[in-house]
Protein backbone atom coordinates (compact mmCIF):
# COMPACT_ATOMS: atom_id res chain seq x y z
CA UNK A 1 0.00 0.00 0.00
CA UNK A 2 1.37 3.41 -0.96
CA UNK A 3 1.07 6.37 1.38
CA UNK A 4 -0.98 9.45 0.71
CA UNK A 5 0.49 11.66 -1.99
CA UNK A 6 -0.48 15.33 -2.02
CA UNK A 7 -1.77 16.62 -5.35
CA UNK A 8 0.85 19.10 -6.51
CA UNK A 9 -1.83 21.14 -8.30
CA UNK A 10 -3.03 22.26 -4.88
CA UNK A 11 0.28 22.63 -3.02
CA UNK A 12 1.23 25.96 -1.46
CA UNK A 13 4.98 26.32 -2.02
CA UNK A 14 5.76 30.01 -1.48
CA UNK A 15 4.80 32.58 1.13
CA UNK A 16 3.04 34.92 -1.29
CA UNK A 17 0.72 32.14 -2.44
CA UNK A 18 0.00 31.40 1.21
CA UNK A 19 -0.77 35.00 2.12
CA UNK A 20 -3.00 35.43 -0.91
CA UNK A 21 -5.41 32.93 0.68
CA UNK A 22 -5.98 35.04 3.79
CA UNK A 23 -6.93 38.62 4.71
CA UNK A 24 -4.02 40.87 5.72
CA UNK A 25 -2.85 40.59 9.32
CA UNK A 26 -4.56 43.14 11.53
CA UNK A 27 -2.54 46.07 12.87
CA UNK A 28 -3.12 44.92 16.44
CA UNK A 29 -1.96 41.36 15.72
CA UNK A 30 1.17 42.72 14.05
CA UNK A 31 1.96 45.01 16.99
CA UNK A 32 1.32 42.51 19.81
CA UNK A 33 4.69 40.76 19.44
CA UNK A 34 7.08 42.06 22.11
CA UNK A 35 10.89 41.64 22.27
CA UNK A 36 10.85 40.99 26.03
CA UNK A 37 8.55 40.11 28.91
CA UNK A 38 6.15 42.73 30.21
CA UNK A 39 4.15 42.57 33.44
CA UNK A 40 1.33 40.53 31.85
CA UNK A 41 3.64 37.94 30.29
CA UNK A 42 5.56 37.59 33.55
CA UNK A 43 2.35 37.09 35.52
CA UNK A 44 1.18 34.46 33.00
CA UNK A 45 4.41 32.49 33.36
CA UNK A 46 4.17 32.65 37.15
CA UNK A 47 0.70 31.07 36.97
CA UNK A 48 1.54 28.39 34.40
CA UNK A 49 2.15 24.79 35.54
CA UNK A 50 2.63 23.49 32.01
CA UNK A 51 4.33 24.33 28.74
CA UNK A 52 5.17 22.72 25.42
CA UNK A 53 8.78 23.04 24.24
CA UNK A 54 9.40 22.98 20.50
CA UNK A 55 12.90 22.20 19.24
CA UNK A 56 14.58 21.21 15.99
CA UNK A 57 17.58 18.97 15.40
CA UNK A 58 20.54 19.55 13.12
CA UNK A 59 18.80 17.40 10.48
CA UNK A 60 15.76 19.70 10.50
CA UNK A 61 13.47 17.23 12.26
CA UNK A 62 11.11 18.95 14.69
CA UNK A 63 10.07 17.81 18.16
CA UNK A 64 7.63 18.99 20.83
CA UNK A 65 8.00 18.01 24.47
CA UNK A 66 5.63 18.64 27.41
CA UNK A 67 7.07 20.19 30.58
CA UNK A 68 5.13 20.45 33.81
CA UNK A 69 5.59 21.22 37.50
CA UNK A 70 3.87 23.29 40.20
CA UNK A 71 2.66 26.66 38.91
CA UNK A 72 5.53 29.08 38.45
CA UNK A 73 8.14 26.37 37.88
CA UNK A 74 9.70 28.39 35.06
CA UNK A 75 11.94 31.04 36.60
CA UNK A 76 11.91 34.54 35.17
CA UNK A 77 15.59 35.55 35.49
CA UNK A 78 15.01 38.92 33.85
CA UNK A 79 12.81 40.45 31.16
CA UNK A 80 14.81 38.68 28.46
CA UNK A 81 15.64 35.34 30.09
CA UNK A 82 13.82 32.28 31.42
CA UNK A 83 15.05 29.08 33.06
CA UNK A 84 13.20 25.76 32.75
CA UNK A 85 14.16 22.89 35.07
CA UNK A 86 14.73 19.54 33.39
CA UNK A 87 13.05 16.88 35.53
CA UNK A 88 13.60 13.09 35.31
CA UNK A 89 12.21 11.50 32.14
CA UNK A 90 12.88 8.58 29.86
CA UNK A 91 16.45 9.71 29.07
CA UNK A 92 15.92 9.90 25.32
CA UNK A 93 17.09 13.52 25.68
CA UNK A 94 15.42 14.52 22.41
CA UNK A 95 14.84 18.17 23.30
CA UNK A 96 18.21 18.61 25.02
CA UNK A 97 20.16 17.07 22.14
CA UNK A 98 18.25 19.26 19.71
CA UNK A 99 19.10 22.40 21.69
CA UNK A 100 22.81 21.56 21.50
CA UNK A 101 22.50 21.11 17.72
CA UNK A 102 20.10 24.02 17.10
CA UNK A 103 19.38 26.51 19.89
CA UNK A 104 16.15 27.89 18.39
CA UNK A 105 13.13 27.02 20.58
CA UNK A 106 9.43 27.80 20.78
CA UNK A 107 7.46 27.74 24.04
CA UNK A 108 3.70 27.55 24.56
CA UNK A 109 2.59 28.28 28.15
CA UNK A 110 -0.77 26.85 29.27
CA UNK A 111 -2.80 27.57 32.40
CA UNK A 112 -5.65 25.17 33.30
CA UNK A 113 -8.96 26.94 32.77
CA UNK A 114 -7.46 29.66 30.56
CA UNK A 115 -8.37 29.52 26.88
CA UNK A 116 -5.65 31.97 25.87
CA UNK A 117 -1.98 30.99 25.88
CA UNK A 118 1.43 32.66 25.89
CA UNK A 119 3.96 32.04 23.14
CA UNK A 120 7.68 32.72 23.42
CA UNK A 121 10.33 32.18 20.76
CA UNK A 122 14.05 32.43 21.40
CA UNK A 123 17.31 30.56 21.72
CA UNK A 124 18.26 28.10 24.45
CA UNK A 125 21.36 26.90 26.26
CA UNK A 126 21.85 24.14 28.82
CA UNK A 127 23.44 24.87 32.20
CA UNK A 128 24.46 23.04 35.37
CA UNK A 129 24.89 26.23 37.44
CA UNK A 130 24.51 24.90 41.03
CA UNK A 131 22.90 28.06 42.40
CA UNK A 132 20.27 28.14 39.66
CA UNK A 133 19.53 24.42 39.94
CA UNK A 134 19.19 24.60 43.72
CA UNK A 135 16.67 27.43 43.38
CA UNK A 136 14.47 25.08 41.32
CA UNK A 137 14.52 22.18 43.78
CA UNK A 138 11.27 20.32 44.47
CA UNK A 139 10.92 17.84 47.34
CA UNK A 140 14.57 18.46 48.13
CA UNK A 141 15.76 17.40 44.67
CA UNK A 142 17.42 19.79 42.25
CA UNK A 143 17.18 19.17 38.50
CA UNK A 144 20.21 17.74 36.72
CA UNK A 145 20.30 20.77 34.44
CA UNK A 146 18.25 23.76 33.34
CA UNK A 147 17.26 25.11 29.95
CA UNK A 148 17.99 28.85 29.84
CA UNK A 149 16.02 30.65 27.14
CA UNK A 150 17.02 34.02 25.72
CA UNK A 151 13.77 35.63 24.57
CA UNK A 152 13.41 37.01 21.05
CA UNK A 153 9.65 37.48 20.89
CA UNK A 154 6.67 37.20 23.23
CA UNK A 155 2.98 37.35 22.45
CA UNK A 156 -0.40 36.20 23.70
CA UNK A 157 -2.32 33.72 21.56
CA UNK A 158 -6.10 33.92 21.26
CA UNK A 159 -8.59 31.37 22.60
CA UNK A 160 -9.97 29.98 19.33
CA UNK A 161 -8.15 26.60 19.39
CA UNK A 162 -9.15 25.95 23.00
CA UNK A 163 -12.73 27.06 22.39
CA UNK A 164 -13.01 24.80 19.34
CA UNK A 165 -11.59 21.82 21.21
CA UNK A 166 -13.63 22.39 24.44
CA UNK A 167 -10.42 21.42 26.21
CA UNK A 168 -11.47 22.49 29.71
CA UNK A 169 -15.17 21.60 29.40
CA UNK A 170 -15.96 18.55 31.60
CA UNK A 171 -18.85 17.69 29.29
CA UNK A 172 -16.25 16.89 26.62
CA UNK A 173 -13.84 14.94 28.83
CA UNK A 174 -13.19 11.38 27.63
CA UNK A 175 -12.95 8.31 29.85
CA UNK A 176 -9.27 7.32 30.05
CA UNK A 177 -10.32 3.74 30.77
CA UNK A 178 -11.81 3.52 27.27
CA UNK A 179 -8.31 3.67 25.78
CA UNK A 180 -5.42 1.23 26.32
CA UNK A 181 -2.98 2.07 29.10
CA UNK A 182 0.37 3.64 28.28
CA UNK A 183 2.16 0.44 29.30
CA UNK A 184 0.04 -1.68 26.95
CA UNK A 185 0.49 0.73 24.05
CA UNK A 186 4.28 0.77 24.40
CA UNK A 187 4.47 -3.01 24.83
CA UNK A 188 2.22 -3.53 21.79
CA UNK A 189 4.52 -1.25 19.80
CA UNK A 190 7.73 -2.97 20.96
CA UNK A 191 8.09 -6.40 22.58
CA UNK A 192 4.40 -7.29 22.73
CA UNK A 193 1.93 -6.92 25.59
CA UNK A 194 0.99 -10.00 27.63
CA UNK A 195 -2.34 -11.66 26.86
CA UNK A 196 -2.92 -12.29 30.56
CA UNK A 197 -5.16 -9.50 31.90
CA UNK A 198 -3.89 -9.82 35.48
CA UNK A 199 -0.28 -9.54 34.30
CA UNK A 200 -1.16 -6.41 32.35
CA UNK A 201 -2.80 -4.93 35.44
CA UNK A 202 0.35 -5.64 37.44
CA UNK A 203 2.48 -3.86 34.83
CA UNK A 204 0.13 -0.86 34.90
CA UNK A 205 0.27 -0.78 38.71
CA UNK A 206 4.09 -0.88 38.62
CA UNK A 207 4.09 2.18 36.33
CA UNK A 208 1.81 4.06 38.74
CA UNK A 209 4.15 3.19 41.60
CA UNK A 210 7.13 4.50 39.64
CA UNK A 211 5.28 7.76 39.01
CA UNK A 212 5.01 8.21 42.78
CA UNK A 213 8.75 7.79 43.34
CA UNK A 214 10.39 9.16 40.19
CA UNK A 215 8.74 12.52 39.45
CA UNK A 216 11.72 14.29 40.99
Automatic annotation (TrEMBL):
Database matches in Gene3D superfamilies = Electron Transport, Fmn-binding Protein, Chain A
What domain of life?
Bacteria
A Pfam family: PNPOx_N
Record domain Pyridoxamine 5'-phosphate oxidase N-terminal: where:
38-158
Which InterPro entries does the protein's record reference? Pyridox_Oxase_FMN-dep, Pyridox_Oxase_N, Split_barrel_FMN-bd
Coiled coil regions in record: none
Name the NCBIfam families for this protein.
PPOX_FMN_DR2398 (TIGR04025)
How is this protein named in the record?
Pyridoxamine 5'-phosphate oxidase family protein
Please tell me the species this chain comes from: Martelella lutilitoris
